[in-house]
Amino acid sequence: MRLFFLLLFASSLLNAQDLDYTRDVIKFLTSKKCLGRGYVKDGQKHATNFIVKELEKSKAKPLFTSTFLQPYSHQVNTFPKKVEVKVNGKKLIPGRDFIIDPNCETIKGKWELEKKDSVNYVCKDKSKACSVKLVKKLTHSVSLFHMKPAKIELLRLRFPNDIKDIELDIESVFIEDFKTIILALLLRVKITIRWLYLRRITIIWERWERTVIFPEPMIMPVEQAWF
């Protein structure tokens, strides 16, 4: 909680120029050209090239001596082709109406469903070919594996009535050796934090050098600026 409020307050100190630049970066990385920065159609590559150019402009130090990049590979389940779902005969829009479980294998067919509880549906024929869950929010994720059964999440808001049947036409491609890169740099940061407490303003300066590695998640150590 302390870290959250600190980040929130620090972000409020950004000037208009910084905010404009931040918006431009977010706009590009979330654009159609980057394709979700995903594993198909070079989405990751477009995002990486952009980030490297911005790092070079900022004169950041590459971790790997002369480059920010280091190749590596991993397995991943992808969906570069068909991802079609119909519920009660109505074709749905991926990402808006539904998402599929990232483990999903290729599957095609139509099944009648029965309600298991308030949010879960299963195949009426007990085949366990697929299952459906109503959720408040659709959140995409990635899997390093593929397996049955097919699990589909539907946005609850769009399905106020009971679901009678589901039709699936999904093609997955499991890649054993997906070629990608690690992006890493040394980042030197100087941050000013203003904190209002008991009618006094305290200004704290913190410096640190930190290794930043993508795509691994990383939280900047703002909590070091402890009041």
Please give a structural write-up.
The protein is an alpha+beta fold. It is built from three helices and twelve strands, in the order αααββββββββββββ. Strands 4-3-10-6-7-8-9-5 form an eight-stranded mixed β-sheet, with no helix packed on it. β3 and β4 form a beta hairpin. The two termini are 14 Å apart.
Number of DSSP strand runs: 12
| Tertiary shape | elongated
- Residue stretches low in confidence (pLDDT < 50, at least 5 long) are 1-10, 193-209, 215-227
Taking the sheet with the most strands, its summary is:
8 strands, mixed
Order of helices and strands: HHHEEEEEEEEEEEE
Give the N-terminus to C-terminus distance in angstroms: 14 Å
Q: Number of helical segments?
A: 3
Rg estimate, integer Å: 23 Å
What is the SS-derived class?
alpha+beta
Helicity range of the residues? 10-25%
Strand order of the largest sheet: 4-3-10-6-7-8-9-5
Strand proportion, as a percent range, falls in 35-45%
Give the overall average pLDDT.
77
List the helices and strands and how they pair.
Layout: H1 2-11, H2 16-29, H3 43-57, E1 61-62, E2 69-78, E3 83-87, E4 90-91, E5 98-100, E6 107-115, E7 120-123, E8 130-135, E9 150-155, E10 165-170, E11 173-197, E12 200-214
Parallel strand pairs: 8-9
Antiparallel strand pairs: 1-11, 2-11, 3-4, 3-10, 5-9, 6-7, 6-10, 7-8, 11-12
Summed up:
This protein is of the alpha+beta class. Helices cover 17% and strands 41% of the residues. β7 and β8 (130-135) form a beta hairpin.
